[in-house]
Amino acid sequence: MKLEQLLVDLTSAPGVSGREQRVTSVLVDFLKTGDAKSWVTEVRTDALGNLIMYKAGSAPNPPRIMFAAHTDEIGLIVTEVKDGFLRFAPVGGVDVRVLLAQEVVVHGKRDIPGIIGAKPPHIQDPDESNESVKIEDMLIDTGLPADELKAQVSVGDFVTIRRELIALRNSTFSGKALDDRAGVLALVECLRRLNGFAHEADVYCVATTQEEVGLRGALVSAFGVEPDVGIAVDVTHGSIPGLAEHEAFDLGKGPVLAVGPQVHPKVLGQLKASAEEAGVSYRIEPSPYPGGTDTYAIQMVREGVPTALVSIPLKYMHTSVETVSIKDIQDTGRLLAQFVMDLDSKFVEGLKCFWKS
Predict the structure, then answer these.
(1) Is the C-alpha dihedral spanning 132, 135, 140, 141 positive or negative?
(2) Domain with CATH 3.40.630.10 in the chain
(3) What is the DSSP letter of 10?
(4) What average pLDDT does the structure give for the chain?
(5) Is the CB of residue 230 less than 8 Å from the CB of residue 306?
(6) Which residue stretches of 138-213 are H helix?
(7) What is the rounded distance in angstroms from the CA atom of residue 206 to the CA atom of residue 53?
(8) Residue 63 DSSP class
(9) Can 189 be counted among the known catalytic residues?
(10) How far from 76 is each of 15, 95, 106, 181, 293, CA to CA, in Å?
């Protein structure tokens, strides 16, 4: 299967925070077919639904490296079923301004298509017409009669935006949930590149859950894996007009390495060295606030874990038209694979001496 097709399958699967099972099923099915069967030693899930793709190292007492990319997407939850319509609230950091007129799928007893509507501008009050429509004034219309809708949908059912992944020019793709299924795909690419090569470290590629609502999956999975090194793979802002050069990064020019309190300097140094060895271009992003990605959760587990953050540039974050370059995903996977090949027990032991060069 081509990388592009797996990205289509991953983004097509619904996976609001706490309901990521269909996304992990895509990965499990993929790893059971063709050459991918040899890429991992074991695949398992934990109590929070994290999918742990494990590849054994060759050392007698191998160091443990954990890569984490989250499977969950922002979405909606039904708060009221009344008069043939649904009211809803956000799950995760939904930009309310982009919800109106979106196509959705309501995941009730069965999947039901719908649209998000509101009072048309022609009949709005003067003060309403100059403001964005509030989420409490929006509704989901499925077209079902009121009694049938009540039989099929309950308060607490989840809703996802309906959007197919489309190919744009210059090897870019646009769609929903690329934050962070682009990162998940980079983990798969890493495993593909490691196939057939010996490496000292045990590799745990973890497709984490519930990142958008508090980094919960990474916290739990890191506690179970007990990694010696942890690297989160997420997205950062892609360049568009109106953003300063230090705020965003061009697509197609390689991954972005963060610098900040959650980034161990020696792990960052090795990532740079591995990128140069693999011929992968990279950029540096200041990241002064530790929260917001799985890096923070992994760093804080048990006695603490040396961590780093590798990001894929993405335009229009937290919308249904998120846009990435497939080249950046490939280069991120190549960087991660090289990092694994370079990792040994001596490097891990040196991480315990934080302030020594």
Answers:
(1) negative
(2) 3-73+176-350
(3) H
(4) 94
(5) yes
(6) 146-152, 178-194
(7) 6
(8) -
(9) no
(10) 11, 11, 9, 18, 21
What parts of the chain have a pLDDT lower than 50? none
Whether the CB-CB separation of 249 and 237 falls below 8 Å is answered with yes
Taking a C-beta distance cutoff of 8 angstroms, is the pair 337, 207 a contact? no
Give the model's pLDDT for residue 122.
61
Q: Which two tokens stand for residue 165?
A: 């992944």
CATH number of 75-161: 2.40.30.40
Q: Which CATH superfamily is domain 3-73+176-350 in?
A: Zn peptidases (3.40.630.10)
Alpha carbon of residue 215 to chain centroid:
11
Tens digit of pLDDT for each residue in 157-204? 999 999 999 999 999 999 999 999 999 999 999 999 999 899 999 999
In angstroms, the CA 199 to CA 234 distance is 24
**Which one of the listed residues 200, 211, 285, 322 is annotated catalytic?**
211
Q: Residue 227: name the closest of 340, 357, 338 by CA.
A: 340
How far from 102 is each of 161, 193, 330, CA to CA, in Å? 7, 38, 31
**SS3 (DSSP) at 269:** helix
